[in-house]
Design a protein that fits this description.
Elements lengths: L4 H11 L8 H13 L4 E4 L5 E6 L2 E11 L20 E2 L2 E3 L3 H17 L6 E9 L8 H10 L3 E4 L7 E5 L1 E10 L14 H13 L5 E2 L3 E2 L1 E10 L10 E10 L5 H9 L9 E5 L1 E5 L5 E5 L1 E2 L2 E2 L5 H12 L6 E4 L5 H4 L7 E3 L14 E3 H18 L2
Parallel strand pairs: 3-6, 3-7, 7-20, 8-19
Antiparallel strand pairs: 1-2, 2-6, 4-5, 5-21, 8-18, 9-13, 9-14, 9-17, 10-11, 12-13, 15-16
C-alpha cells in the first residue's frame, strides 16, 4: 500500500542523506521509530549504530536482523531522473539513494520485529542499523554482536526475496613496483616503475580464476593506478602503485592471496611489494574503525537446520525463495565468516540495483520482505 507506515518510513529514510561517515541524522530517525514501535531497549553504540531489542515472553536465543544505514554517494555527472534524496514514488517503486541498498530492508526489519506477538516468543529479537559498512564490512557489526550475543543472524542485503546461505568475500590488495629515477632525456639510466607495473598487471590479469558452484568465480579487478612523482616533469617515475579488488572464495586467506601474486612468473628483476590494505575510518560518532581489508567468504550447508527453518518459514507465508549466495561482500563476512554464527541473507531488491543512478525498490517487494522477516523471526523463536 502506497500510504502504509512501512512505505512512509522507508521514504523518510531515503530522504535523509546518510553517506558513510554522515549517518547521524538517519540514526536519529531509526531510534525514534524503534521507540515509537515500543522496542524494549533502544540505544546508539559507540560507533554510532542504532540497536533495538524486543524481549519474548520466554527465555531463548537471540536472532539479530542487520541492515546498514550508510550509503554510497551520488557520483558527479551521474544523470538521475528522480531526486536522489527525494524518496519519490513512481510505478509502485520508491526511488532514491539507499532505497534498495538498503534502507527499505532496514525499515521492513524494524516493522516486522515490532509486529511479532511477544507472548509466543522464546528469546529476543535484535535489529541493528550499522554504520560504515560501505567502507569496512563487518567492523561495526562486530560491536553490535558483542553487545547482543546473537545465536542467529539475518542479513537484509538484496536477494530478490530469495534466501542466501553464503557470500563471496573481498580483499583490497595494493601492489607497488619500485624503480630508479632518472631524467626522462636519459631513461636508460633509470628504471621505470610504470613499465615494471605493466608487466605485473599483465601477469595478474592472466591468473586462472577459481570457481565454486555456489559462490561463482574468484576474480581480480584493477581499480586504480598511481605513479610517483606525479606530475612527473622530465622524471622517470620511481614508484607505481595499483589497487586490486579480489573477490574471495571459501578457504582463501590473506597469505594465500598474497602468495598467489608473489609466485607469478616472468617478474624477475622487478622489485614488487604486495600487501593487504589496512583500513581506518572515523565514524560520525568519533569512533575509529580499523582493520585489515580482508573479508572472508562464507557458506552455510543447505541442510543446516537454520537454513531449512528459514526456507520453510518463507514458503509458509506464500513466498517462493530459491537458495543462493551473495556475489558481493556484506556484513555477513564477519557474522558468518569470522564469528561463525549461523547467518542467512534475505532482502528485497536485486544485487544489481545497488549503487546505480535512479536506485529504486519495488513497494510490493518491500511489503513481502516485511512478511518474510516476521515469518523467520517467529519460526526461529517459536
Amino acid at each position: 500500500m502506497l500510504d502504509s507506515p512501512l512505505v512512509a518510513f522507508t521514504q523518510r529514510l531515503v530522504r535523509q542523506r546518510s553517506i558513510h561517515g554522515e549517518e547521524g541524522a538517519v540514526v536519529e530517525l531509526i531510534v525514534a521509530e524503534m521507540k515509537r514501535l515500543k522496542f524494549d531497549r533502544v540505544w546508539v553504540d559507540r560507533n554510532g549504530s542504532a540497536v533495538g531489542v524486543i524481549d519474548g515472553a520466554k527465555s531463548g536465543p537471540t536472532i539479530l536482523l542487520d541492515g546498514h544505514c550508510d550509503t554510497v554517494g551520488v557520483a558527479p555527472g551521474a544523470k538521475w531522473i528522480h531526486d536522489p534524496f527525494g524518496g519519490e514514488i513512481e510505478a509502485n517503486s520508491i526511488y532514491g539513494r539507499g532505497a534498495s541498498d538498503m534502507k527499505g530492508a532496514l525499515a521492513a526489519m524494524i516493522s516486522a520485529a515490532a509486529a511479532v506477538d511477544r507472548s509466543v516468543l522464546a528469546g529476543r529479537i535484535a535489529v541493528s542499523a550499522t554504520v560504515m559498512e560501505e567502507n569496512l564490512e563487518g567492523a561495526s557489526l562486530q560491536t553490535v554482536m558483542e553487545a547482543v550475543h546473537p545465536g542467529f543472524v539475518v542479513m537484509g542485503e538484496a536477494t530478490n526475496l530469495n534466501l542466501n546461505r553464503g557470500g563471496r568475500g573481498r580483499a583490497e590488495i595494493q601492489l607497488e613496483t619500485i624503480g630508479r629515477p632518472a631524467h626522462s632525456s636519459t631513461p636508460n639510466l633509470g628504471r621505470n616503475a610504470i613499465l615494471d607495473m605493466m608487466k605485473v598487471v599483465e601477469a595478474v590479469e592472466h591468473l586462472p580464476a577459481r570457481a565454486d558452484p555456489l559462490l561463482g568465480s574468484s576474480l581480480f579487478a584493477l581499480t586504480d593506478i598511481v605513479s610517483e612523482p606525479y606530475p612527473a616533469y622530465s622524471v622517470i617515475p620511481s614508484r607505481c602503485r595499483v589497487t586490486y579488488d579480489r573477490r574471495l572464495l571459501l578457504g582463501e586467506t590473506p597469505d594465500s592471496v598474497v602468495d598467489m601474486i608473489r609466485d607469478l612468473s616472468g617478474l624477475d628483476g622487478i622489485t614488487l611489494d604486495i600487501r593487504i590494505v589496512e583500513g581506518e575510518y572515523r565514524t560520525y560518532a568519533g569512533a575509529v574503525l580499523r582493520g585489515l581489508k580482508f573479508f572472508p567468504a562464507w557458506i552455510l550447508p543447505e541442510n543446516h537446520p537454520y537454513v531449512q527453518t528459514c526456507l520453510q518459514a518463507l514458503r509458509k507465508v506464500g513466498l517462493r525463495p530459491e537458495l543462493g549466495a551473495y556475489r558481493f561482500c556484506t556484513n555477513a563476512a564477519y557474522s558468518a565468516g569470522v564469528a561463525k554464527v549461523p547467518t542467512v541473507g534475505f532482502g528485497p531488491g536485486r544485487e544489481e540495483d545497488a549503487h546505480v543512478a535512479d536506485e529504486r525498490l519495488s513497494i510490493d517487494e518491500l511489503e513481502l520482505a516485511e512478511r518474510g522477516y516476521r515469518a523467520i523471526i517467529e519460526a526461529v523463536l517459536a
